[in-house]
Amino acid sequence: MIPFKVKVFWIVLVLLVWATPVLAQKPLPQDIITQVRFEQKLDAQVPANLAFTDSTGKAVTLGDYFGDKPIILDLGYYECPMLCSLVRNGLFESLKQLDFTVGQDFQVLIVSIDPGETPDIAEVKRRASMMDYGRSTSTDGWNFLVGQEDNIKQLADTIGFKYVYDAEIDQYAHPSGVVILTPDGRVSRYFYGIEFPATTLRLGLVEAAANKIGSPVDQLLLTCYHYDPVSGEYTLAIMNIIRIIGVATVVIVGGVVLFMVRRDHEKSSPRPV
């Protein structure tokens, strides 16, 4: 029989090996972090003629989405391993709580910042998002786009979305948040972070629908309330959260396994007469 102490040693060793990729995540270089920010460009007009491709493979321009409804614009990329999914999930959770409905009262416009992504992956994400939303079976208002680098950059610069590609890890460093546009495509309001209170989001949509533009003071309060993407603290916070989760998982799993091993050991040990 394998001695109890040997069992414990190998269990701990396996857990540490499993956790190493999470705990050893290399932080983003400072020169990249300092370039990642979300500048406020309230009332900026998004160019209507910028060309993209929607998730069905159809050629479109941003002007195709301008009309009589406000727009929630989210820049990120579909195969992002971390932050983009958190932003989209946070947004869609809030949308479920609204008494407004996507397509009827406003539009959702998701644009990939990765020029290598295809309509196919955009369609996969669109369908998954609609299924999770569950409020309507209509595809109206659910717009997931891909595009060429020049057009992506121009859109990002227009709304102040500053991101950087890190070739070493093949990922994009970018800020987190969404932008609300007026029906004619002007920047009305910024929401930073990964959680967007439904009541505040609703107010932003109402203001945008009336062609109202928020103030920098409003945006500063929202920035302070959530995270500070301007300073890069948000990216580091996400990495720390993942590390904490990894450590907590190791501790919990390790504790459970050690308890079970000790219990089995005590059962198999001869009891004193």
Explain this structure to me?
With 273 residues, the chain is an alpha+beta fold. The protein folds into 2 domains: 4-27 and 236-268; 35-231, Glutaredoxin (3-Layer(aba) Sandwich). It is built from 8 helices and 11 strands. It has helices spanning 4-23, 30-33, 83-97, 119-133, 149-159, 198-209, 216-225, 233-268, and strands at residues 37-38, 51-54, 59-61, 71-76, 107-112, 142-146, 161-162, 164-166, 171-173, 177-181, 187-192. A 7-stranded mixed β-sheet has the order 3-2-6-5-4-10-11, sandwiched between helices. It has a two-stranded antiparallel ribbon with strand order 1-7. The radius of gyration is 23 Å and the shape is elongated.
Gyration radius, rounded: 23 Å
Distance between the termini: 23 Å
Q: How large a portion of the residues is in β-strands, by DSSP E? A: 15-25%
Q: CATH superfamily membership of the largest domain, which one?
A: Glutaredoxin
Can you tell me the residue ranges where pLDDT is under 50 for at least 5 consecutive residues? 6-26, 217-237
Strand segment count:
11
The helicity comes to 40-55%
Tell me, rounded to a whole number, the average pLDDT: 79
**Biggest sheet layout:** 7 strands, mixed
CATH names the topology of the largest domain as Glutaredoxin
CATH architecture of the largest domain: 3-Layer(aba) Sandwich
Describe the strand arrangement of the main beta sheet, using strand numbers.
3-2-6-5-4-10-11
Number of DSSP helices? 8
- Name of the top-level CATH class of the largest domain: Alpha Beta
Question: How many distinct folded domains?
Answer: 2
What gross morphology would you assign? Answer: elongated
Order of helices and strands: HHEEEEHEHEHEEEEEHHH
> Class by helix and strand content?
alpha+beta
